[in-house]
Design goal:
about 450 residues, 5-stranded antiparallel sheet, 4-stranded antiparallel sheet
Length: about 450
């Protein structure tokens, strides 16, 4: 499979707007990794540690586990008990601080878990609010829905919580960061898609019925699942809505942007499937090895593979598209070194710089995207980095957020320019200087 190039950068905690045009569906391989009985994995997110983290949410009223799970790319799972019993963890997202943040729908708390498994809980101001979806916002805070309270919440990495009341009773469900710098969320019983600015201004757009999950697409729009209607929806920042029925019906649930520029989603009714929809509305479906496994949340990893949770199957699934190639770990650039195309000087405040990577670290001339790890060293002020193919526009989303004086790293997928130099532009969006290190471990073509 080939991609017609465009700006694509992804980190474990952030996903930049991509402008990828997929030509055809890749060869798909689905692998399943079993968990403990009655684990009931629900939502899943890629962590900055290169692993995948998921909530274990008891099914309806059954007595299930009360854990946050972690699984490696090789399928080794570890589970971490949540301090509050019967908390019913629901959504999970990677934060700007290298930790994972999750909602505790029954305990009325927001949880934070470190890569080492240490959990801290933050009670919500509104009683019985039922927090559900959660995502990283463009302001480096976590944003979440409060279904029962009809509110949208915001929590900083330090644990400061702010709540914004919605204008109508809606049952806000899932939430995602949009390409326009706003947060977008589904209103399951309100039959609307909502938009909230980082200042708390809410706008609502009526849709057909019961949108569940939502994700930013590669086309500047938001894509969402209509579980009870068997459709995938698309909404532009202006509020224009298009719907695409599934060919064989079914109940789509989780959705995320894939490495091929298409949206991938789960279908949680029997027969259990995952689906793929291009930005032109072409849908392909792939049956799972385990039927009636009820696949729910889905995410993309730094390896370019897709990972999903199978609620009743008690499994984590992996979708490999056969697009990635590994390279021996190699340092491609380090601005701490002597001045040069891939060395110094240090990045100045609010400055972008092109780095030509053709022939570096064994990157072949037909590579379109590289995978690796990006690190900031000794930043003098807080801020973020953006990274993109040098022949493309600046993406709206950062790949790494950082604090003054703290070295931070994150996984990265970033497109290469198509002008022969295979350049990547890195921009320092802070008021201080920062050094940047990029280590490469693979590529896509």
């Amino acid at each position: 499979m080939s991609w017609v190039g465009r700006s694509f950068s992804l980190a474990a905690a952030t996903l930049a707007t991509a402008l990828l045009v997929p030509r055809a569906a890749a060869a798909v391989t689905i692998t399943e990794f079993p968990l403990l009985a009655r684990s009931r994995p629900f939502s899943i997110a890629a962590g900055a540690d290169g692993n995948f983290w998921f909530t274990e949410n008891a099914y309806f009223n059954e007595v299930g586990l009360n854990n946050i799970g972690r699984i490696t790319r090789d399928g080794v799972a570890t589970e971490f008990p949540i301090p509050t019993p019967d908390s019913y963890p629901f959504g999970i997202a990677a934060g700007p601080d290298g930790n994972l943040w999750f909602t505790e729908s029954a305990a009325n708390k927001i949880g934070r878990i470190t890569p080492a498994g240490e959990i801290t809980e933050f009670p919500l101001p509104t009683a019985s609010s039922v927090p559900l979806g959660i995502c990283l916002g463009p302001d480096s805070a976590l944003w979440f829905t409060e279904r029962q309270a009809d509110k949208i919440g915001r929590i900083t990495p330090a644990g400061t919580i702010t709540e914004f009341t919605l204008p109508t009773g809606s049952w806000a469900w899932m939430i995602a960061s949009g390409p326009d710098g706003n947060l977008w969320f589904t209103e399951m019983f309100g039959d609307k898609i909502g938009r909230i600015t980082t200042d708390g201004v809410v706008t609502e757009f009526p849709i057909g019925r019961r949108a569940f999950c939502i994700a930013a697409g590669p086309d500047g729009a938001l894509w969402f699942t209509e579980n009870s209607r068997g459709k995938i929806g698309r909404i532009t920042p202006a509020g224009d809505i298009t719907e695409y029925p599934l060919p064989a019906g079914g109940s789509p649930f989780g959705i995320c942007l894939g490495p091929d520029g298409a949206l991938w989603f789960t279908i949680n009714a029997s027969p259990s499937k995952v689906g793929r929809i291009t930005t032109s509305g072409v849908i392909t479906e792939f049956p799972l090895p385990t039927d009636n496994s009820v696949p729910e949340g889905i995410c993309i990893g730094p390896d370019g593979e897709l990972w999903f949770a199978e609620l009743l199957g008690d499994k984590i699934g992996r979708i490999s598209l056969g697009l990635s190639y590994t390279l021996p770990p190699c340092r491609a650039l380090d601005t701490r070194l002597a001045a040069g195309p891939l060395g110094g000087p240090t990045l100045d405040p609010i400055t972008a710089r092109d780095f030509p990577l053709a022939g570096v670290c064994g990157i072949p001339s037909d590579a379109l995207v590289i995978s690796g790890n990006i690190t900031v060293v000794s930043p003098s002020a807080p801020g973020d980095l953006r990274a993109w193919a040098s022949d493309q526009p600046v993406p709206p989303t950062s790949v790494l957020n950082f604090y003054a004086g703290r070295t931070r790293a994150n996984n990265l997928l970033v497109a290469l320019s198509l002008d022969g130099s295979q350049s990547v532009t890195i921009q320092n969006d802070s008021t201080g200087t920062v050094d940047v290190v990029l280590d490469v471990n693979g590529y896509f073509k």
